[in-house]
Amino acid sequence: MSTPLKTGYTPEQYLDFERHSPERHEFVSGEIFLMGGASERHNLIVINISRDISLQFRSRPCKVYANDMRVKVGKTSLYTYPDVVAVCGPAKFDDSLKDTLMNPMLIVEVLSPSTEAYDRGRKFEHYRQIETLAEYLLVSSDKPHVERFVRQSSGEWTFSEVHDEAALQLSSVACSLALANVYEKVEFE
Predict the structure, then answer these.
(1) Which one-letter DSSP state was computed for residue 81?
(2) CB 97: neighbour CB atoms within 10 A?
(3) How does pLDDT run across 125-156, given as a tens digit for each residue?
(4) Cβ distance 73 to 26 under 8 Å?
(5) What are the residue ranges spanned by the domains of the chain?
(6) With contact defined as beta carbons under 8 Å apart, do 112 and 122 qualify?
(7) Which of 50, 82, 123, 131 has the fewest Cβ atoms within 10 angstroms?
């Protein structure tokens, strides 16, 4: 993470600040951090994943959100913007403005050099505190590769990975995700 933009804020002060800001910010432990922009590859991957999941949700009571849906981790008071979030059944929000989701079932983060360590480490520690979260994906933006963490009934998380032309079954939202679709039109160096 970068240096905090502001410190000593309450969650209420953060939300008031965030809802009036033209930029997006993450909030953790009283500190507000400016979120950076994303590369073309990052954006294409997010759009591709959102599109594929959304098409599979068409006749189901599920929703997918990309980039701008804030998620709150109630137990740790982290407010953040995952790259892709999905929920099946009624979405639960922090308040009547419906801009802070509380019950994601699937969270996807597309890795970038500046956020990879945080997405793998501290951020995932926060995410694991969300009782409804059943699946977490880390998607490489450098090569066709996805790491998948699934919460078991015991509370333990299991790890698997796919690469190249493989497909991934997303058990939390009953969807499949083909890597060919995830990386459609993405050019690697």
Answers:
(1) -
(2) 9
(3) 999 999 999 999 999 999 999 999 999 999 99
(4) no
(5) 1-36, 38-182
(6) no
(7) 131
Distance CA 22, CA 45 (A): 24
pLDDT of residue 132: 98
Task: Give the whole-angstrom CA distance, residue 21 versus residue 74.
Answer: 22
Contact at 8 Å (CB) between 76 and 129?
A: yes
Helix locations, the chain, DSSP H: 11-19, 40-56, 116-120, 122-127, 179-182
Residues β-bridged to residue 32? 6, 27
For the chain, the helix, strand and coil percentages under 3-state DSSP, each to the nearest 5: 20, 30, 45
Q: Which fold has domain 38-182?
A: tt1808, chain A (3.90.1570)
**Strand 62-66, strand 145-151: pairing:** unpaired
Structure confidence by residue, pLDDT tens digits, 40-91: 999 999 999 999 999 999 999 999 999 899 999 988 989 999 999 999 999 9
- Burial string for 154-181 (b: 16+ CB within 10 Å, else e) reads eeebeeeebeeeeebebebbebebebee
Rounded to whole angstroms, how far apart are CA atoms 124 and 148?
Answer: 12
